[in-house]
Amino acid sequence: MFTTITPVQNILSISSHVVHGNVGNDAIQFPLNLRNWNVDCINTTNLSAHPGHGVFTGGKEKAKLVGDLFQGLKELLLDDEYQAVIIGYVASSENLQVIWNDILTQFTRKNVVKVMDPVIGDNGKVYVSQEIVDLYLELLGRNEIDIDLLTPNMFEIEVLTGIKINSWETVKKSIDVFCAKYMRVKNLVITSVTIDGKMYCVGSSKGKSFYYKVSEVDAIFSGSGDLFLALLTDELVKNEQVLAVSVCKTINVVTDVLNMSYQLLKDDCTTKRNANGKLYIPDLKLVESKNILVRDVEVIEPTYLN
């Protein structure tokens, strides 16, 4: 006897891949599978492990392969196969060019949710090539493709807008500049904004900007941004692009996954500390957090900026 199940949806995720660990597509696929998504992955890297481990092999995938893989999917699947597309770490300017010109342009239906994390850097440092930075600025500035959600961190929004953030006034100014400059981006989430030593997640949608305070975990994680991207995409689709509700639920779940990973690894002799003495956790404990990933979350009202 078959029981009624929640309808399954389909998503294409283009990001990095590691053989060991949970970053990039490996932090995106499993959580979305748990939430009833079939996830097709195109990998922009193929590494043995995250470089944060200190030892890794492998490298970037060539842009031709990225494009060829998508063409193979296009020939195999119907045009309406995907309900959403995620663009994460692109690895090279050539990959970004192919993703923008040859892949995103194929998703012209209004109901395909297109989500992009413009991975440029963090903590005041660029960790991709200048060619990638320049190409993001150029492509987004063309205003030719609708992007349903862009998820830069604080440093990345500073790069995209040219506004240095150090107060709520500069946060509002950066959002105003962003909305004027990148008019085809429907929703903006600045994933981590630090004001007066406290961390916040800031969102802007339909002319309204808001924020939630984020409970920090005393460690540095790899893969947390990818997990955030996956879960926020899921929530955005489920909540019909009501951004504040989607952000609230995502923050709660990601924070609990980080706490679980921290508790499991804080006493592990292989867990390293960074230059500031903080624990560095290169691999999230996603399987161990599976109950967290699917639990319901109480929604609270955000604080509005305007």
From TrEMBL:
<dbReference type="Pfam" id="PF08543">
    <property type="entry name" value="Phos_pyr_kin"/>
</dbReference>
<protein>
    <recommendedName>
        <fullName>pyridoxal kinase</fullName>
        <ecNumber>2.7.1.35</ecNumber>
    </recommendedName>
</protein>
<dbReference type="GO" id="GO:0009443">
    <property type="term" value="P:pyridoxal 5'-phosphate salvage"/>
</dbReference>
<dbReference type="GO" id="GO:0008478">
    <property type="term" value="F:pyridoxal kinase activity"/>
</dbReference>
<feature type="domain" description="Pyridoxamine kinase/Phosphomethylpyrimidine kinase">
    <location>
        <begin position="74"/>
        <end position="265"/>
    </location>
</feature>
<dbReference type="InterPro" id="IPR004625">
    <property type="entry name" value="PyrdxlKinase"/>
</dbReference>
<dbReference type="GO" id="GO:0005829">
    <property type="term" value="C:cytosol"/>
</dbReference>
<comment type="similarity">
    <text>Belongs to the pyridoxine kinase family.</text>
</comment>
<keyword id="KW-0067">ATP-binding</keyword>
<keyword id="KW-0808">Transferase</keyword>
<dbReference type="GO" id="GO:0005524">
    <property type="term" value="F:ATP binding"/>
</dbReference>
<dbReference type="InterPro" id="IPR013749">
    <property type="entry name" value="PM/HMP-P_kinase-1"/>
</dbReference>
<keyword id="KW-0418">Kinase</keyword>
<dbReference type="InterPro" id="IPR029056">
    <property type="entry name" value="Ribokinase-like"/>
</dbReference>
<keyword id="KW-0547">Nucleotide-binding</keyword>
